[in-house]
Amino acid sequence: MMWMEKDTLISLDEVEVEMSKEKPMHRPFFSRMQEIYNLDEKKIKEAFKNWKILKEGEAMTIGKAQNSFNLYLKNNASTGYIGSTEVQAPKYPKSTIEDNWW
Q1: pLDDT by residue (tens digit) across 14-55?
Q2: Domain map (residue ranges) of the chain
Q3: How far apart are the first and last CA of the chain?
Q4: pTM for this structure?
Q5: Is residue 97 predicted with pLDDT exceeding 70?
Q6: How far apart are the C-alpha atoms of 84 and 51, rounded to whole Å?
Q7: At 76, phi and psi to the nearest 5?
Q8: d(Cα 66, Cα 29) in Å, to the nearest integer?
Q9: d(CA 64, CA 96)
Q10: What are the backbone dihedrals phi and psi of residue 60, each rounded to the nearest 5 degrees, phi first?
Q11: CA dihedral of residues 36, 56, 9, 19 (deg, nearest 10)
């Protein structure tokens, strides 16, 4: 197995391969994310595809990619939009302007 320098810039396709590999003393990144966010493998893969589309064309280090995807999961898991392909309107409280319009 070829060990990569931490600061080596790689494409997002290479990022996906590297993040799925078994590393010495660590479980693969995606299985750790499944456990942290209590999501199944399918949801993690859907989320990664969505994240990858957002980051299309970027080259980044493995560490930066892992941090970025972790943040994406954290933000989307809290809103419940993981893997959702349709855009849903956010649920805002009813406007006080409407209530007080005269």
Answers
A1: 998 988 888 777 788 988 899 998 988 899 989 999 999 999
A2: 10-84
A3: 71
A4: 0.65
A5: no
A6: 12
A7: -80, -30
A8: 8
A9: 42
A10: -150, 170
A11: 30
